[in-house]
Amino acid sequence: MILKFLRVLKIARIAIRYGLDDIVMSGLVTPRAARLVDRLIFWRDLSAPRGERLRRALEDLGPIFVKFGQVLSTRRDLMPTDIADELAKLQDRVPPFDSDLAIAQIKKSLGAHPDDLFAHFERDPVASASIAQVHFATLKNGREVAVKVLRPGMKKSIGDDVALMHIAAGWVERLWADGRRLKPRQVVAEFDKYLHDELDLMREAANGSQLRRNFAQSDLLAVPEMFWDYCSESVIVMERMRGIPISQTERLIAEGVDMKKLSRDGVEIFFTQVFRDGFFHADMHPGNILVSVEPASFGRYIALDFGIVGTLTDFDKDYLSQNFLAFFRRDYKRVAEAHIESGWAPKETRVDELESAVRACCEPIFDRPLRDISFGQVLLRLFQTSRRFNVEVQPQLVLLQKTLLNIEGLGRQLDPELDLWKTARPYLERWMKEQVGWRGLIERFKAEAPRYSHLLPQLPRLAHQALSAQARQPQQDNTELIRRLIVEQERTNRLLGFAVYFGGGLLGGILLVQAYAHWYHFFG
Hints:
Elements: H1 2-17, H2 20-25, H3 31-40, H4 50-61, H5 63-73, H6 81-87, H7 99-110, H8 114-117, E1 120-121, E2 127-128, E3 132-138, E4 144-150, H9 154-175, H10 179-182, H11 184-198, H12 201-214, E5 221-222, E6 235-239, E7 244-245, H13 249-254, H14 259-277, E8 279-281, E9 289-291, E10 301-303, E11 309-311, H15 314-328, H16 332-342, H17 351-362, H18 375-388, H19 398-414, H20 420-436, H21 438-455, H22 459-471, H23 479-523
Parallel strand pairs: 5-10
Antiparallel strand pairs: 1-3, 2-3, 3-4, 4-6, 7-9, 8-11, 9-10
Helix pairs in contact: 1-9, 4-5, 4-6, 5-6, 9-11, 14-19, 14-20, 15-16, 15-20, 16-17, 17-18, 20-21, 21-23, 22-23
């Protein structure tokens, strides 16, 4: 408790030192009151621009606050330009830690000095982020690699801050009327889980490997190869990727990159990860995305930093796809029905009232380019609507919401004319046809066929065992018992008949699917 109290004091001290109170109160109090506060805290220096002061405060507060600044930097529609420009420096220009500490970490984790592991190792880091920093190196076989090293002391720092977030979430739940509905403790627990996952670089390497496999046949996204012999919990070594940071739009245009196509490709990559794979990169700020200008992969996205990924269940994917398609078609009644069917809104909610409220939130944003739309305002109105109808926040979708905001921020930078809805709708409709139509049915039959091949031969034996167990029951001169046995026998007979009927139909369906697959292979 003492340590938590000291952390709160540190947060207050840093806020006062960099004048965060001045930034906040500038829009809330009169100039006379602001001058009075400045006179009371006369020893601090507020000559630096406000954006720089905010960035330096977040850096001093630690990795959780740095990540908060990274998210804010992508929302130029919500943040003043001077603040957004400064916060953008948090994406890959966080002050590095000493190279000797990085070398000691590598030696401890991999069992040898970098000079012995690599043909060449660059002591100066090429990039530094909130969790780790990166050094370039060359393997002894000549492959160029990037070596990612975890910052020392990260687990304790994040643990302390998350503990404060848990306390704050408890206060919110108890003291705020909407606290219980918003599930702040579950949301913090989800955030805590992903942050601690990010501290395990071996898990990050596995995430990157999975994403690389998912897009192995794609021309849209490149993911670096992991070198597992050089990976551990605090150090990972991956293929070095060459490209231009996606935030450097002037360089991309000078190289001849089609910015409109790049923005459309970004939307397709996002929806592919979410709806096809249910596995998506959940930290897609500009510092983690490059664009290739190499002739063989010109204009292709390059993904980096896989510490935070999101996963969705089949139920989540189905619910989201129905909602997205309903939004794109402006079918607000279906949106309302989907909320009630999924249990997000109470069952007693009137569909027509929820439909009307959703229409009022979303109708103004259609047929307009991103530059004329503020998703921040739309989300605020949706939040107010959800509060009115007691719609519960789903903690498992918090990362998806964060990623969607990042995608919008990137879209604004690449192509302000991008129509997100028209770009995404054809992809979602194609995905729905594959999942719900005949193609999806056949694929699911093929996926389940191995299970059915084991189940069907067992049906006669299971039925015989059920009948034998029934016959072995002791006979009693009891009319009620006889009646129950007759009922059970009839139920067993119906079950057996259904099993035979279902099994025969299922077997026929499987044979039909297999025949179709062979026909398609030879003639399709």
